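From: lab user (bench 3)
To: helpdesk
Subject: output format question, protein + thymidine-5'-phosphate

Hello, I'm new to running complex predictions and I'm not sure whether the block I got back is the full result or only part of it. Here's what I submitted:
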Amino acid sequence: MTGRLISVEGGEGAGKSSAMAAVRAAIEGRGVEVVQTREPGGTPVGEAIRTLLLDPAHSICAEAELLLMFAARAQLVRELVRPALERGAWVLSDRFTDASFAYQGGGRGIDGGLIAELERWAATLKPDLTLLLDVDVRQGHARVAGRGAGKDRIEREREDFFERVRATYRQRVAAEPQRFAVIDAGQSQEAVIAAVTAALDQAFARWA
Ligand code: TMP
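Helpdesk reply: Thanks, we reran it on our side. This is the complete output you should expect:
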């Protein structure tokens, strides 16, 4: 495989959308094809699973939630990610397996070893670079609340859930510092974009 897989992670209100646009622009600026996707989702079956997962009308146990995340991911890898990487495109994903470790592992308390086994079997791939947009939980929530949109099933969780999600992301950075670029997402949007662009420049230099 010649392409690269880049994921963008972060808690609620971390500014993932504008960071994704900046990553995409940085890659396309170098004349490389970008395939952008999101998790859960990114394929017809994955998007159907996403609708199921995020619908506040459903009550879903932690185990089913984890398996549905990986069902969508297994499909995404085989239908979209691998073919793109094989033809040399770069895949930019709004979240990937780190989110399962953070939300289902940290947030719901599922054993990380089990998630690692699913990662090996169902996801099969790890990102080459993961940008973690790290923001204080309350600050992130205040931004989301400002949007006024209805909350999905996972956004309705309590603050301590999101504190565990954030802590787990940070533990993953500590365990694999070379794969992550941590961006202080509490800064202004301009500063976040500049930090994202700098992280991409470093990655390009490393991979040249
Ligand atoms: P989004 O907010 O980035 O659109 O992601 C949808 C939600 O799904 C978000 O609350 C994080 C959650 N999620 C998990 O809980 N586990 C996962 O593996 C993924 C990819 C997302």
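A quick orientation on your result: The chain has a mean pLDDT of 95. Let us know if anything else is unclear.
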